[in-house]
Write a structure and sequence with these properties.
The chain is an alpha/beta fold and 324 residues long. It folds into two domains: 173 residues, Peroxisomal Thiolase, Chain A, domain 1 (3-Layer(aba) Sandwich), CATH 3.40.47.10; 143 residues, Peroxisomal Thiolase, Chain A, domain 1 (3-Layer(aba) Sandwich), CATH 3.40.47. 34% of the residues lie in helices and 26% in strands. It has eleven helices and 13 strands. The protein has a five-stranded mixed β-sheet, sandwiched between helices. A four-stranded mixed β-sheet has the order 8-13-12-11, with helices on both faces. Strands 2-3 form a two-stranded antiparallel ribbon. The relative contact order is 0.20. Bound molecules: oxa(dethia)-CoA. Oxa(dethia)-CoA binds next to helix 2, helix 6, helix 8 and strand 12.
């Protein structure tokens, strides 16, 4: 039986036009540029325009990824879209993207693992491609977190932003992949922590949307341990280590969490891709946003070994190790 690999063909991203700086936020709540930069590394975030919905952001990112891959929408037969801020309760935001691209074949669905959504979506698409069910997948992370923020709560509203990123994965016979493709994925969840980062409303509980609530210190306390656990799993499964790794592209939530994780794992600072300063925590969109930057500026090249990692609400956490 043919063994398959899921190989990255292209990556793209999109940020809404409106920039909200730390100085702007200091006019809205009792905070300062100094506090936000020192505690998180965030300098500004983007806010979707009125009427601009998650699928609009996702469509821009998907088109950019297809262009980067040199492919047409019709070449895609699977769309897996990670979001916690869908256009509507249903149908899936993924089908709005599918329709926007003019695709009428294959399958499109959403996946919800909060900030870990993109890693969970990569693992899901990878398994479908490797099983031979689909040929080319768009894996998208897209969010409009500005719509679920309590803009009077300084402990959360300064942290998050809107954006989208997408990757095109292609099924390739393993013996023709030259070692490229997703090497391993490791996903974890522990629902005992579900009340540490959550939205205080929902269809079945309040018939409304609600606002994001977080025990920031508690999330921080668990983050580094969870992140390093799934990365050590990825290293153990492949024999890759901090030295042989080329790029570390973590979920962009907080500079201090990223720095502490890299230090604990022995990953050199020069290998860490950091974009949190320019868009804040965009949840499921943050990894493909960072990937798109490091790919476009020439850092990530064919053959490079790239480590993705995320941790978020649930708690959920996961890693994906791939050769570009
Ligand atoms: O994707 C996963 C999702 N979430 C995360 O990754 C977030 C994880 N947590 C964090 O990143 C950090 O816990 C935060 C950035 C949220 C907070 O940083 P911290 O160093 O843990 O601060 P803290 O919560 O311990 O608060 C320190 C102080 C408090 O004042 P007191 O009690 O010391 O007087 C807060 O009230 O900072 C105060 N504070 C603020 N001050 C100015 C909290 N938010 C703000 C703010 N501006 N925006």
């Amino acid at each position: 039986m043919t063994q398959f690999r899921s190989v990255v063909r292209g990556v793209g991203s999109y940020l809404p036009e409106r920039i909200l700086t730390n100085a702007d936020l200091a006019l809205m709540v009792d905070t300062s540029d100094e506090w936000i930069v020192q505690r998180t590394g965030i300098k500004e975030r983007r806010i979707a325009a009125d009427g601009e919905v998650t699928s609009d952001l996702a469509l821009h990112a998907a088109r950019a990824a297809l262009k980067d891959a040199g492919l047409e929408p019709g070449d895609i037969d699977l769309i897996v879209l990670a979001t916690s801020t869908p256009d509507n309760t249903f149908p899936a935001t993924a089908v709005a993207v599918q329709a926007g691209l003019g695709i009428t074949h294959g399958a499109a669905f959403d996946l919800q693992a909060v900030c870990s959504g993109f890693v969970f979506a990569m693992a899901t698409a990878d398994n479908f491609l490797k099983a031979g069910n689909f040929r080319r997948a768009l894996v998208i992370g897209a969010e409009t977190f500005s719509r679920i923020l309590d803009w009077t709560d300084r402990t959360t509203c300064v942290l998050f932003g809107d954006g989208a990123g997408a990757v095109v994965l292609e099924r390739v016979a393993a013996d023709e992949a030259n070692g490229a493709g997703i090497l391993t994925t490791h996903l974890r969840s522990d629902g005992r922590h579900k009340n540490k980062l959550y939205v205080d409303g929902g269809v079945s509980s309040t018939r409304s949307v609600g606002y994001l609530r977080m025990e920031g210190r508690e999330v921080f306390r668990h983050a580094v341990g969870m992140i390093t656990d799934v990365i050590e799993d990825a290293f153990a499964a492949t024999g890759v280590d901090a030295q042989s790794l080329d790029w570390f592209v973590p979920h962009q939530a907080n500079r201090r969490i990223i720095d502490a994780s890299a230090t604990k794992l022995g990953i050199a600072p020069g290998k860490v891709v950091m974009t949190v300063d320019r868009h804040g925590n965009t949840s499921a969109a943050s990894i493909p946003l960072a990937l798109a930057v490091a790919h476009a500026d020439g850092r990530i090249k064919r053959g490079d070994v790239v480590l993705l990692e995320a941790m978020g609400g649930g708690f959920t956490w996961g890693s994906a190790l791939l050769r570009w």
